[in-house]
Design a protein that fits this description.
alpha/beta; four-stranded parallel β-sheet; 45% helix; binds zinc ion
Length: 326
């Protein structure tokens, strides 16, 4: 549709000449497949695979925390109008199931993480030392909001190999919802998958250049378990179990003790969490703040991580720089 026609159609809608609204939307929305993505990283995957054929609504946008989101009436309308709804699953968006149910949508709900090897979480005693990257106790929203996470770490996208699985699931769902676009979705996905392959090679090479005993960093909340397992970096988390509840003084004291004993390259804050605790740990231990990592959300356009590929590159650059003291 030309821009002029589109404006004309919108003008008619605004004037109430098209009724009912739902009937009118078929006329021009049919040009693009309406897709809802629960958060910004999934929206980027959908954009890469769907290209011009999809119209994406992102519920939790850049720098947003999808663990603790409260859906708005506009979100329910977008979900109702969608043909495809893409979610992470693994208990990440505890609010999503109710939103989908309440919206009355007929959309296909795609769980993008289907088929990845999910990491089990170990339940941490409150007084335990903060979890290490490999076996983290990270069930934020469960603690804070009473959601049951099923004991799995939701942050699977932090491994690029898992991101490839996400992309394959999204491609397959778009083809089912819009078979005419099959060739386009397949071509877009295969170009993007090749890009992700190259990205993963780049990440492995960057980490391999860091001496093994220096591959340790500290983050605010424990979102890098898959990254740690895939690439061999140990993450110590200051906050541990929740983006909502504060670390106890005992947890902080233990972590500070651990930092003083071990070689820790840097402490990082994340784009969607409060960095004051990390600032304090940095001051008390003399370990320098390494900057802002992107864990659960992209940056806005123009920021350091507006796409998934940018996000991974940015995080790896910051971590390797801090770990090598460059
Ligand atoms: Zn998280």
């Amino acid at each position: 549709m030309s821009e002029l026609t589109r404006r004309h159609a919108v003008g008619l809608l605004a004037a109430g000449l098209f009724a009912p609204l739902a009937g009118a939307s078929v006329g021009f929305a049919a040009e693009k497949l309406p897709v809802v993505a629960s958060f910004s990283i999934l929206a980027d995957f959908v954009a890469r695979v769907g290209g011009d054929r999809v119209a994406i609504t992102t519920l939790v946008g850049p720098n947003g925390d999808a663990h603790v989101y409260s859906p708005k009436p506009a979100d329910a309308r977008a979900v109702k109008a969608a043909k495809v709804v893409v979610v992470n699953g693994l208990g990440f968006e505890g609010w999503m199931e109710r939103l989908v149910g309440a919206s009355g949508t007929k959309a296909t709900v795609v769980t993008a993480s289907t088929g990845i090897a999910a990491r089990e979480l170990v339940d941490d005693d409150e007084d335990e030392a903060p979890a290490k990257g490999g076996k983290a106790g990270h069930d934020h929203a469960k603690e804070a909001h009473g959601h049951d996470h099923g004991g799995l770490d939701p942050h699977a996208w932090q491994s690029v190999a898992n991101a490839r699985v996400y992309v394959g699931n999204i491609r397959d769902a778009l083809i089912v919802a819009d078979p005419d676009g099959k060739a386009v979705y397949e071509a877009n996905a295969s170009a993007y998958l090749a890009e992700l392959d190259a990205l993963e090679t780049e990440v492995k090479a960057a980490v391999a250049a860091v001496p093994a005993d220096r591959r340790r960093v500290i983050t605010t909340h424990d979102a890098f378990g898959y990254f740690a397992a895939a690439y061999g970096i140990t993450f110590l988390s200051a906050q541990g179990v929740s983006t909502e509840t504060e670390a106890t003084p005992k947890q902080v004291a233990k972590l500070i003790g651990q930092i003083r004993k071990e070689k820790i390259g840097a402490v990082f804050i994340e784009n969607m969490t409060d960095g004051r605790l990390v600032d304090r740990i940095a001051k008390e231990t003399g370990v320098r703040p390494g900057g802002e990592l992107f864990s659960d959300a992209l940056s806005p356009k123009g920021g350091p991580a507006p796409t998934y590929v940018d996000m991974v590159r940015h995080n790896v650059r910051l971590m390797t720089r801090a770990m090598t003291g460059a």
